[in-house]
Design a protein that fits this description.
Layout: H1 2-16, H2 44-50, H3 76-86, E1 90-102, E2 105-117, E3 121-128, E4 133-141, E5 144-149, E6 155-158, H4 159-166, E7 185-194, E8 197-204, H5 211-221, E9 228-239, E10 244-257, E11 259-272, H6 283-287
């Protein structure tokens, strides 16, 4: 009988590790820029601290000034996102895990993501454990998405239709899907300056920064509700010209599927091949559809 009673929490953990949650509300995606717009004028005087705009109003100022000259650290998230957004091509590889705990049982589920930006862009998001395996793969081009989940058939939609389902995609102006608009960023702290790299710790508001990520997590996990975030901290490592090196994320949230589980997610994103031609897997099939 013990094994029968233990089965429910084990299955609950396995599903929750795949980034899911609980709650009965229905979220509507918050709009995030996905196409290039004219930059808001940002002067060197603004960057040096004579005025203090929010990070969401800082656009292409990295073209005018280096990280080392920035006095107002609240500008850092927006400038980093804009720098990444400006590249015609790059590769970002994510590796990490989510640990879910319920009734003294812990289960780890791996997180492996590959994003490739180019004329055609690509993402593959995988999560694996001994009990549950999920894969989401998508190609993007000319405002179209070509995607599938697990072993399902590929579907074609507009980017906006895709975002209505999944909440997030990698090539919009957010930081790992978390909003940087308004009061979504609580604080920015300089952690380290070493060997030409600058490290900044960015703390997000668990309520205002997470709307679109919640939609993605619910969809990827095939769950009934949304996670309840407790904390999100992203640490970025960048060069003096805002070139990305690493992104480290740590988040904690509660999620419910059959029962409530405490989840702890950590991962690292490594950037490479900036401005280069990058081979995308099985691109021919996507080209025929988008």
């Amino acid at each position: 009988m013990k094994k029968k009673y233990l089965l429910l929490p084990i299955l609950a953990i396995a599903v929750l590790c795949s980034c899911g949650g609980g709650g009965g509300e229905t979220l509507t995606r918050q709009a995030t820029p996905t196409t290039t717009k004219e930059p808001t004028p940002t002067t060197a005087a603004t960057i040096s601290g004579s005025t203090t705009p929010t990070s969401s109003t800082a656009t292409t100022a990295y073209e005018e000034v280096s990280v080392s000259k920035i006095k107002d650290l609240s500008l850092i998230p927006g400038l980093f996102v804009d720098r990444l957004y400006s590249y015609k091509s790059y590769k970002a590889v994510t590796s990490g895990k989510t640990t879910a705990s319920v009734l003294f049982i812990n289960t780890d589920q791996s997180i492996e993501v590959t994003n490739i930006k180019g004329v055609y862009s690509y993402t593959k998001n995988e999560s694996h454990s001994s009990l549950v395996n999920t894969v989401h793969e998508a190609y993007y081009h000319n405002d179209k998405a070509y995607y599938h989940d697990n072993d399902g058939e590929y579907k074609v939609s507009t980017i906006n239709e895709y975002l209505d389902i999944y909440g997030v995609y990698p090539y919009e102006k957010s930081l790992e899907g978390y909003s940087i608009q308004g009061d979504a960023v609580k604080s920015v702290e300089k952690v380290e300056e070493k060997d030409g790299n600058y490290k900044f710790k960015i703390t997000f508001d668990p309520k205002t920064a997470t709307n679109n990520v919640k939609i993605q997590m619910k969809q990827f996990g095939g769950l009934d509700g949304y996670p309840d975030f407790e904390s999100i901290v992203i640490t970025i490592t960048i060069k003096d010209d805002f070139t990305p090196v690493l992104v480290d994320l740590e988040s904690k949230y509660k999620a419910t599927k059959f029962m409530t589980s405490d989840c702890h997610q950590t991962y690292t994103v490594t950037y490479s091949n900036i401005g280069e031609d990058i081979t995308i897997p099985n691109l021919d099939g996507a080209k025929a559809n988008i």
